[in-house]
Amino acid sequence: MQAAQRVLSLIVLAGGALMNPCAAGAIDRGEVLEQMRRRRPADITILASRPVANGTYTLGIFSISTDTADPALRRYKLWKEYPNDLVIPTESVNCSLDAPVRVKRDEAAIYVRRLNPGGLITEANREDHLVWWAACVPEQAGVDPVTLAGKAKELGYSTLLVESTETLRLP
């Protein structure tokens, strides 16, 4: 939690510097991003890292918590580190046997992604499955979801569910 607060403080500081460069001694955006990379949360688990234009994209998960009213629900924060940006969204998943779901959002919409743990993994759904497995079965965090069909069956998932995405546009 303290790490997330430090990251948010850096974001506020950087935002103020971008709006008024003289106020903070003209802080360099790259310098702020590098400081944030060095201060990753202590409980972060890196799920994937891949080369992208001008550097590396890193996906991590941290602050995973179970809902007190429904133990199948998990809330977490993602660490999406790009060469020139850092995004820290809060998302949720449902780990139930009959309705495994990832819910994410951006500035335009909320996306409800119905998943099939242990099913077919493609480039289109790989991140959904990496995040779902990390939140629902933490000991499998970072494991290639292509290899987890047997584990899904062992946990009681049918591996035969139909995957879909429902997009809910924001006003």
Structure description:
The structure is a single chain. The protein has 2 domains: about 1-40, no CATH class; about 45-170, no CATH class. Residues about 1-25 have low confidence and may be disordered. Helices cover about 25% and strands about 30% of the residues. It is built from 4 helices and 8 strands.
Instruction: Please report the distance between the alpha carbons of the first and last residues.
Output: 31 Å
Count of separate structural domains:
2
Q: Percent helix among the residues?
A: 25-40%
Task: Please count the beta strands (DSSP E, at least 2 residues each).
Answer: 8
Short account of what is shown:
By secondary structure, the chain is an alpha+beta fold.
